[in-house]
Amino acid sequence: MIVRPRGPQPAKFLVVGEAPGGQEVSAGVPFVGQSGQEGARELQESGIPPESCRFTNVTMQRPPGNRIDEFFRTSKKKGVQDGAIYHRGQWAMPVLLEGIENLRREIIETNPNVVIALGNTALWACTGEWGITRWRGSQMVGNIDDVSFRVVPTYHPAFIMRRWDQRWIALEDYKRANRTWREPDYDFLIRPSYGDVITWLDGIVSRLNNHTVKLAVDIETRSRQIACIGIADSDRHALCIPILCVENPSGYWDLEEELQIVLKIREVITHPNAHIVGQNYIYDMQYFARQYGIRSRLSDDTMLKHHCAMPGTRRGLDFLSSIYCRYHRYWKDESKEWNPKVGEEQLWIYNCKDCVATFEANENLDAVIKAFGLTEQYAFQMKTNATAFNMMLRGVNVNKELKAQCSLELSEVLINLRNYVEYILSGFSIFGPKGVSSKKMMTLAYQIFKLPPKYRQAGKKKALTANKEAVEEWCHSVEPIFRPVLEAIREFRSLLVYKSTFADSALDWDGRFRCSINVSGAETFRFSTSTDAFGFGTNMQNLPKKKD
């Protein structure tokens, strides 16, 4: 049966799914199955009457097994082999391209205020972007050939039915689609002269001398050096101060200019009236402390604030922007896509966007914290964060003699384990220069020992493996004759990791052990620890026990 779009035409909203399911094919119209009914409930709860929407799909042909992936090919080789066509970064089967052309005509005839793109395929068809988790909630301008239109992508209702905890996020996206918007007129100063920077910072200092000023601060780093420093004094106005510059290997400024600028930055971010706002600012503070000897103030951290209000949810700035900012368009890939050959303006604009998004998110998070009655709890978290930073700066004293002795003892045990395994295998070695060779371990497990197959998830498929988890399972399930050597291999792998991670871990310049302490790292509000911003340290809270 032919599946046709349903709903009024023209319509305020055009809701675009991916492909029809079994119930849609039977009914001849889209969005009538369980996921369609869930989508209608989401629209209604978000203030969008479903009867004001027109519903369609990228393709009206049902994919095999209801898997839209069947209409894509993952490589050029398979694409060419199966007759796929390369379109907007994907190898798509002709049925999808026919659907996109039909969608173009549907958009022209429906003339919607906004297209709501449900799922990855609809996002790609409308905008050419890929990755619904990143792009959801973005207020975008889509285009199909010569037709431009407004788009807000969000999760497909079928996904929501599998991940109910994400439903509230989809509701926020629908609400965003129901608002009028235009891209803000940002005022970014991104290639300033020395005079521009000093004048701008002097203006801030003058204001600070009279009253409290909120400032969102963010740094970008390269090769573990500060590449640029962004400061925003509103949700639309920001300055990016370049430090490194690909056009000049010695830096953007001469030595005296950079010194004066750093001194002025210190005056700003340490001023008693400076209300400094940051996103995971403990990272930036490490750089200010280590590179410039500056102990920056911090009044609000948007990551901590959101974590306090909604523990267990995503905390990245892009997610916070999608929830708390009036205008949101995903931008966090811009720093990854930056090409040094075309200059650094894109990186500097990215830095300014981070600053203004942090500023605006913080303003709206204030209302959330107050509404949830979490003012006292958030204040406690900020105090805890300050204590954690003190611990990070000080570091932990290390008994170097005991550390060296531990490394030596582990080396001896590892040698004995290796000799034992090689003796048992008599001529076949599973070891490479960095420990157990994955390839040789596969040969041992499946060609020599002929052990039961174990699989790991590789994307959406499963691949044969002889990894740590597989060896652990074999130690408890295979014939007893294989267990001693498998247990020795398991212990060798475990001790090698322990040795490199703990016994041989690098100490900092003063012989102390440092790590990053994250106050917002766990849903339960316990600390989490990891390497610091400069690659020192490790997880200091979860040392392996003897049985591990």
UniProtKB/TrEMBL annotation:
Keyword annotations from UniProtKB, A to Z: 4Fe-4S, DNA damage, DNA repair, Hydrolase, Iron, Iron-sulfur, Metal-binding
GO terms of molecular function: 3'-5' exonuclease activity; 4 iron, 4 sulfur cluster binding; deaminated base DNA N-glycosylase activity; metal ion binding; nucleic acid binding
Record Pfam families: DNA_pol_A_exo1, UDG
Domain Uracil-DNA glycosylase-like per the UniProt entry, residue ranges: 4-175
SUPFAM superfamilies in UniProt: DNA/RNA polymerases, Ribonuclease H-like, Uracil-DNA glycosylase-like
Keyword Iron tagged: yes
Limits of the 3'-5' exonuclease domain: 192-370
Example of a GO biological process term: DNA repair
CDD domains found in the cross-reference section: UDG-F4_TTUDGA_SPO1dp_like
UniProt-recorded name of the protein: Uracil-DNA glycosylase-like domain-containing protein
Annotated organism of origin: marine sediment metagenome
